[in-house]
Amino acid sequence: MTVGLVIVSHSTQLAAGVAELAGQMSQGKTPIAAAGGTVDDVLGTSVDRIVSAIQSVDGPDGVLVLLDLGSAILSAEMALEMLSDEQREHTHLSFAPLVEGAIAAALEASLGRSLAQVQQAAEKTANVAQLQLLKPLTQAENAPEETIASPEGISPAETSTLEVQLTLTNPTGLHARPASLFVQTAARYQANIRAAGHGKETDATSIIGVLSLGMRQGDTITIRASGVDAQAAIEALSELVHANFYETAPEVKTTAPAAPVEAVETPVSEPSENILKSPIEAWRGITTSAGTAVGPALLYTSRAGALKAVQQHPISSDQVASEQKRLREALISAAEELHSLAISLQSSVGQADAAIFDAQALMLDDPDLLDDTLHVIEAEHIDAAGAVAKTGENFASTLETLDDPLIASRAIDVRDAISRVIERLGISDQAAPKQVLSDLSQPVILIAKDLTPSDAAQLRSEFVLGICTVHGGPTAHAAILARALGIPAIAGLDEAALQVIHSGDDLGLDADNGLLYYHPVPEVRAELIERLTERQQQRAALKAAAKQTQAPIIFDGRHIHLFANIGSEDEAKAAREWGAQGIGLLRTEFLFARSPTLPGEDEQRQLYAQVFRAFNGEGAQQRKPIVVRTLDAGADKPMPALTSILGQTAEANPALGLRGIRIHLAHQTLLEQQLAALLLAAAETESQLQIMFPMITTVEELQVARSIFDRVYERLRSRQVILPSPVPIGIMVEVPVAVVMASELAELADFFSIGANDLLQYTLACDRTNVSVSYLYNPMQPAVLRLIHQVAMTGRHAGKSVAVCGEIAGDVRLAPILVGLGVEELSMAPTALPQVRATLERWTSQELSEMAERILHLKTVAEVEQLIAESHGSNEKG
Q1: Which of 202, 289, 657, 769 could join 483 in a cystine, given CB atoms 3.0 to 4.6 angstroms apart?
Q2: What are phi and psi of 686, to 5 degrees?
Q3: Exposure pattern of 842-860 as b/e (b: 16+ CB <10 Å)?
Q4: Interatomic CA distance for residues 581 and 834, integer angstroms
Q5: What's the pLDDT score for residue 153?
Q6: Closest C-alpha among 564, 606, 557, 556 to residue 581
Q7: What is the pLDDT of residue 148?
C-alpha cells in the first residue's frame, strides 16, 4: 500500500487535471482522487465530495489532502470531522502548492514513503514565507513527524520583516470604504501583513480589525510585512495611502444646521423636560440631508439593533459540526446578497454610494469573524445564530468605543450585516414582525432610533418624505443613501420624541435647520410647504430647461448626442423630463425580472408600448430614437422567469457562460417573440425603434441574429402590419474580441454601443462582483480607454455611430475624455444629463483632442486620474 492523495479545488476541472498530471508522473502507482467543485460542478468546494474522495483512496498508510485557497480549508476540516476516528488520525491536510506539491507527493508516495515524508516532500515545493502564511490546521496531529527542512535559496528579503510608517491625509481616515480598499490590497499579496496604530495592531486583511484601529486624518499608521511579496505589498499600500484612497473630497456635503449639535447620540435624561410644551417648539437634531417635508409619522424599528436579544440555543457535541457548516453557508449567502445589492443600487444612488454594501460583504468575509464564531459554537455549545450574534455584537461594540465618531458609527453596519446572516440561519423567535419599508404605499416621515444601510436600500422617495433618527449622523451610510435619493433627513433627535410621537401623527421636518415639529402650527406648516414647493419648482425649472431646444454640442463637426439609460416606465418618463435626446439603452430585463413566469409576446408588446409612450409623451411632433437591448440575462443577472427554458443548471463560471445573445441563439423562439413584440409596440406607438444585441463575440453570432430579425420582420409585414422602417440593428461592444473584429462587425451592424462595465470586466479579467479583485475595476484603466478609442475610430471610418452607455458616460470627469476619444453618443442616468451637458459646453475641440492624445499615451490609472484632475481644474478656471 502507499499513501493516497486527494486534490481539493474550487474548480472541478482543475482538481481533475492536477490529479491526472500527478497520476501520470507517478505512473499510476499512487492512488489519487479529485474533489473539485460543488453540486453540478459549480465553483466552490463540497464536504461530501471531499469525504468520498478521502474514503476512496484511504489505506493503512494514510491520506494527504492538498488544498487550494479560501473555503477549501473549511470544507476539508468539516470533512475530517465526518470521518471515523481511525481515518481522521492518518489523514493530513496541506497547503503545499497544488500542482507542484501534488506531483512531488505522488512521486514520493509511489516510492513507498511514509505519510510524514510525503507531506514533507510536497511542502518543500513551497518557500518558508509561503508556509508561514498557512492558517494553522485544527488538528495538532497533522504536523509531520520529521521536521520540514527550510528550502534552499531563500533570500533574506523573503524572511525579514519590512516596515513603513505613513500619515493618513485623506479626509475621513480609515473609515469603511478606505478600510475596504486597504484590506483588499493587502489580501492580494503572499505576505504576512500587520497594521498598527493608537497602540493596537491587527491583521491587515481583517476589515473589522482595521476599522478598530480608529485611524483618522493626520494619524500615522505602521505597516509591517514579511514574506515573498512583502516589498510589493508595502509599496502598494503606501501608494494607496499617498493617493488618499482615491478620495477627492470629504464624504459629507450637507447644509449645516442652524444650531449644530455636537453629539450624534442624545442621552435620555429627564423625559419630562424634553417633551414639547408648545406646538411652535421643535426637537433639534443635525442635518444629514437637506430639505423640508410635511406628513404623517411612521415609527420604524430597524431589524439590526437587537443582536443582544437573539437567543442562544444550546446544542450537543454532535451538533457542533452541522452548526459550523450552517454558519459558513449563511456567511457566504449573505455576502453574495450584499454584492448583488451593491450592483442593483448603482443606477439609483451611484457606484460610490452603492459600494457601502460591498464593504459590508467584506465584513462578513472577515477571517476573525469566522474564526471567533466557530470557536464560540465549539467552546460554548450554542447554535450558529446565537454565536454569530454574540461575535457580531462584540465587534460592533469594539467599534463604538472608538473616539472617531465616523468609524464608531460603522457599528450599525456590522450589526446590519450580521442580521442578514441571522436571517439566513432561520431565526423565527423574534418578538416583533419585521417592517418592510419597500411595501409602503402612503407617504410618511420615518421616525426611528437608527436606520441601517439595508433599511435605506428599501427607501423610495415617493413614499418616504423625510427621515428622523436618534442615532447616526451625516457620515452614517443610511444618511449617505438618503442624500443620494434626495430625501430630507436629520439625526441626533432626542429619544424622548419617540415617547411622544405615534404613527400617523402630523409632523413637519425642517432638515435644512435640523428641526422636527410635532403637529406644526399653520404658520410653520405653511413655511415648510412653501420651501418644499420652491425646491420642487427649482427642480421643475431645471427639467424644463433641459427639455427646451438647446444648442447642439458640436466638436470638429461631430454632433454629440446625450441619451438616457432606462429600465422601466417611470425611468422613461424621467428621461423625457430631463431632456434626453433619445434612449440609448432600454434594458428589457425589467420585464423578465419582475415575473416568475415567462411573459408571452402580447404581454411583452403591451409593456414595451407603455415604456415607449412614457418617453414619447403626448403630442410629440418628432419621435426621438429608442435603442432597445434584447434580453441580457445570465452571469450577475439571473432571471427566475427563464428557469423553465434554461433549467436549474448552475455554471461554474457564469460570466463566461450562457449569457446575453448566447441564450437567444440557443433558444431562438425567445428572440423571435421579443423582436416581434418590440416591432409591434413600435408600430403601435409610432416610435423610432433601434435594436441592439448584447454580448456579441463573433461575426457568425451577428449573422444569425440579423437573419432572425429579418425573418420576424418579413413575417409581420406579410400580415400587413405597418412597421417602422428602417430599424437599425446594432451591437453591444462588451468583450475585447468585438473590438478586434470591429471592422468586420461594422459590415453587419448599423451602430456600436460600448458596454463600458462589461468591457472593463472582460479586459481586466476581473469579476466586478468579486470584492477581492475590485481594485482592478476602474473605468480609468488606460487599456479600456484605448479600446474605446479603437472602436470609435473604426466606427468613424465605417460611417457607423459609436455610443458609450453606463455610469462612465454620466461621469463629468470622463464624459469629455470619451468625446475626445471619438465617441458621438453618451447614454446615462436621466438626472445626469444637465450636468454632463454643462460640462461638455466648457470644452473646446482643441482641448478635447489634446487631452485625448495625452490619455492614449498614459500607462497607469494614477496617471490618468492625475491628468483628469489637472485638466478639469484648468478648464474650470478658464
Answers
A1: 289
A2: 55, 45
A3: ebeeebbbebbeebeebee
A4: 12
A5: 41
A6: 564
A7: 34
> How large is the angle between the packed helices 861-877 and 782-798, nearest 10 degrees?
70
Phi, psi of 46 (to 5 degrees): -120, 125
From residue 250, alpha-carbon distances to 429, 571, 800 in Å are 42, 30, 42
Instruction: Find the catalytic residue in 339, 477, 664, 789.
Output: 477
List all residues 6 or more positions away from 646 whose beta carbon is below 8 Å from its beta carbon: 658, 663, 667
Q: What is the largest CA-CA distance in the chain?
A: 94
Question: How far is 381 from 314, CA to CA, in rounded Å?
Answer: 6
Question: Other C-beta atoms within 10 Å of 727: how many?
Answer: 18
Which DSSP symbol is given to 844?
A: -
477 among known catalytic residues: yes
Q: Which of 92, 471, 664, 805 is catalytic?
A: 805
- For the record, the C-alpha cell of 713 comes out as 420582420
Mode of pairing for the β-strands spanning 515-518 and 282-284:
antiparallel
Which pLDDT belongs to residue 578?
85
- In eight-state DSSP terms, residue 722 is -
Question: Per residue in 862-872, pLDDT tens?
Answer: 899 889 888 87
Grid coordinates representing 819 are: 468625446
8 Å CB contact between 851 and 871: yes
DSSP codes, 40-90: GG-SSB-HHHHHHHHHHH--TT-EEEEE-STHHHHHHHHHHHTS-HHHHHT
**Average pLDDT along the chain, 878 residues, taken 10 residues at a time:** 88 85 80 82 76 88 84 76 84 84 84 84 61 40 38 47 89 78 82 89 85 86 91 88 67 35 33 43 85 91 70 90 91 79 62 69 86 91 92 84 69 83 70 63 88 74 89 69 79 84 90 90 92 84 68 86 86 85 88 67 92 84 89 64 64 76 90 96 95 96 96 94 93 96 97 93 78 74 96 96 88 92 92 86 91 94 88 64
CA distance 467 to 478: 10
CA 439 to chain centre: 24
**Strand-pair partners of 558:** 555
Residue 746, number of CB atoms within 10 A of its CB? 20
The closest alpha carbon to 424, from 453, 454, 384, belongs to 384
Walk across the sheet containing 506-510 and list its strands.
282-284, 515-518, 506-510, 292-300, 444-448, 464-469, 489-491, 286-289
Find cell 400580415 and name the residue. Answer: 719
- pTM, full prediction: 0.52
The DSSP bridge partners found for residue 6 are 33, 65
Catalytic-residue membership of 242: no
Q: Name every residue whose Cβ is closer than 8 Å to that of residue 371 and which is 6 or more positions away in sequence.
A: none
Question: In angstroms, what CA-CA distances link 79 with 40, 49, 134, 329?
Answer: 19, 9, 19, 15
| 553 strand-pairing partners | 560
Short-list 183, 193, 185, CA closest to 364: 183
Q: Which residues contact 84 (CB under 8 A, 6 or more apart)?
A: none
Residue pair 767/786 in contact by the 8 Å Cβ criterion: no
Gyration radius (Cα) of the chain, Å: 30
* CA–CA distance, 355 with 587 (Å, rounded to integer): 22
